Amino acid sequence: MRVGKFLFVLCISILVSGCGLPILTKSESQQADDRIEAKYGLAKLGQIKWSEAYEFAFNETMAGPDYSTRYIDLDYFSRLIDIAKKAEAGQMSQDEVDSAKRQLTVARQQALAPHKEAARRAQADALRAVSRSLATQPPLQFQPVPVQPRNTLNCTTTYVGNQAYTNCN
């Protein structure tokens, strides 16, 4: 019964620690990041426009599963698209683009900070709950199990040149 309680607390702790975080496997998330990074690489090489790379990132984020901070990411990419299109139309200098992107990145980090802190707090609470649960459990008692000796055969093989000599006890 105590093991069942422990498993229940452990499952709840794991669920709580994941609240507000994207429900993506690492490979799905990594694949999306890799596709976006590939587009950024093409933009750096001048093979596509930066606005196209940011539109791709926006669409990848939009097409993916929902998560608590997705609206922040979508807003970020939307604003990057606007900045890139203005730069491509000659309405912004490179210094203005760099400044706008820095300001946008800082604003995004500030918007994400409470979400990251809440996730860290939830994870810490879950770990404390598991720790308290383990502290109230009596230590496990292991009972020795008698083992019957088997009638085994111990053999040793020695090689001398091309000859093999086997000795069994």
What does this structure look like?
It contains five helices and two strands. The protein has 169 residues and is mainly alpha-helical.
Sum this structure up briefly:
The protein is mainly alpha-helical. It has five helices and two strands; from the N terminus they run αααααββ. Helix content is about 65%, strand content about 5%.
How much helix, percentage-wise, in residues? 55-70%
- Over all CA atoms, what is the radius of gyration? 30 Å
Report the average pLDDT across residues: 81
Shape type: elongated
Helix tally? 5
Uncertain runs: none
Notable traits:
single chain; 169 residues; mainly alpha; 5 helices
Which helices and strands, and how do they pair?
Layout: H1 2-17, H2 26-44, H3 50-63, H4 70-88, H5 94-136, E1 155-160, E2 163-168
Antiparallel strand pairs: 1-2
Helix pairs in contact: 1-5, 2-3, 3-4, 4-5
